Amino acid sequence: MFKLTDLREILRYVPSYRERVFVIAVDGELVAGESFTNLLLDIALLRSLSIQVVIVHGASYQLRQLALEKGVAISNDDGTGITDQSTLHLALTVANRITHEVLEGLSTADLRAASTNACIAHPAGILRGIDTQFTGRVERIDAAFLQTLLKNDIVPVIPPLGFDGEGRTYRVNSDSVALEVALALRAIKLIYVTAHDGIVRSGKVLRQLSVSEAAELLSKNRGELEAAMVSKLEHGWKACQIGVERVHIINGRVDEGLLAEVFSPEGVGTLIYGNQYQAIRPAVKKDAGKILRLIAQGVQNEELVKRTRVGIEKQIGDYYVFEIDKNAMGCVALHAHPETSQGEMACLSVHPQYSNRGIGRRLMAYVEKLAREKGLRELFCLSTQAFAYFQQKGGFREATPEQLPASRQQQWEQSKRNSRVLVKSLTEPPASETIPKGA
Questions:
Q1: Is residue 437 one of the residues assigned to a domain?
Q2: Among 65, 242, 328, 332, which one is most buried in terms of CB atoms within 10 A?
Q3: Helix/strand/coil percent split, the chain, to 5
Q4: What is the pLDDT of residues 269-310, one digit of tens each?
Q5: Cβ–Cβ contacts within 10 Å for residue 232, how many?
């Protein structure tokens, strides 16, 4: 069993985690248990190693307990169904109480912390003909606010409540909040701390699941899973699809379980991991309309060249789409010029809802990978407004139109767009990605 004294094991991972964000989502049942104090000590150790921590807590357990005490029938306990007025009132009471307990515990561990209203929400609305009343859906996370706290060594504590601009409060699902916080802060890890050992099937804990394995489990074997863990698996799967490198589901009652999961190869719970290219696939003819919708705003802003459905369909083999829940949320194209061993990266676009989440960089990296596989020696792109992005995030450098293939140079001149020409050599080996070896 991993022990705190295994300092060599800890130090092996620290360089990969230093100044990166861990989002730790703690179920309310854990906050109420005796092991919560030990969990806070583990979090204090993470902070001492310059790992930034955000805590999101649940409240379902306490909500059920308070409802029982008051003799009130609650309409829903986890923020996914209907939240009526009396349930919202109890949810506010228990959420504020739990937040206070977390703040007290962090103070005992000599950590500064603050309760936040960083979760901006709107009503979930009418779903399948049923009004969900005071149940909310996360609209966005105030990342700037959270980053300010983190820069000042303050641990943000986020309750399962969402707030709108009109002074209204909504009950939101804590698993969903944790996912959105992890995405907004580009967290390297999202850790669900529960009262369960992880994802269990046929009496056995599944130690590691790829994104595709998690999807298959949800679609084919959902009925075999513990009901309480399905939400964790669903949100963990989605997080890895969109960009969180590692999602962990662990039992917070295991002594030093958080440290064992983070700082040892084997871990103690379930790890969900994603391949950075997992969500990217070749486009097919029926994707042409989706691509046109994705690039519409960029075309209007004169960032992208106007394309037609017929034109896209004609070159559909050059296009790739980034999917989230089977919806195209990003696209890119690679047009090869074998006569000069060059490739053009074109039509890079990401849906505004998923901007600033690293999807553009992943699409760029994917195109570079494809170009190398095709034996191309140079990648180029043309840009009127995003040239700084391509230089800073993609490693491109500015060049001249004369360095383009002859046919492309002629098009450049005829377009009158005066786009900047950017190139990247592919003769050097690609920079290796730093992927933590910890579970």
A1: no
A2: 332
A3: 40, 25, 35
A4: 999 988 666 678 999 999 999 999 999 999 999 999 999 999
A5: 27
Amino acid at 320: Y
Distance linking the first and last C-alpha atoms of the chain: 15
Q: Which domain holds residue 211?
A: 7-273
Tokens of 181: 């916080």
Integer Cα distance of 436 and 189 in angstroms: 10
Position 434 in a domain = no
Q: In whole numbers, what is the pLDDT of the chain averaged over residues?
A: 91
Do 396 and 334 share a domain, yes or no? yes
The pTM assigned to this predicted structure is 0.72
Question: Do 258 and 384 belong together in one domain?
Answer: no
The DSSP-derived string for 251-273 is ETTSTTHHHHHHHSSS-SSEEEE
Residue 70 lies in a domain: yes
CATH, residue 363? 3.40.630.30
Instruction: Enter the tokens of residue 259.
Output: 């440290």
* Tokens found for residue 350: 């990401």
| pLDDT tens, position by position, 79-125 | 999 999 999 999 999 999 999 999 999 999 999 999 999 999 999 99
Does residue 350 share a domain with residue 324?
yes
Last residue of a domain, one of 248, 273, 298: 273
Domain total in the chain: 2
- Rounded alpha-carbon distances, angstroms, from residue 253 to 40, 330, 333: 12, 41, 49
Contact (CB, 8 A) for 175 and 25: yes
* pLDDT at residue number 12: 76
Sign of CA dihedral 35, 40, 46, 48: negative
Judge if 299 and 348 occupy the same domain.
Answer: yes
H-only helix segments in 170-226: 174-184, 211-220
Q: 38 lies in a domain?
A: yes
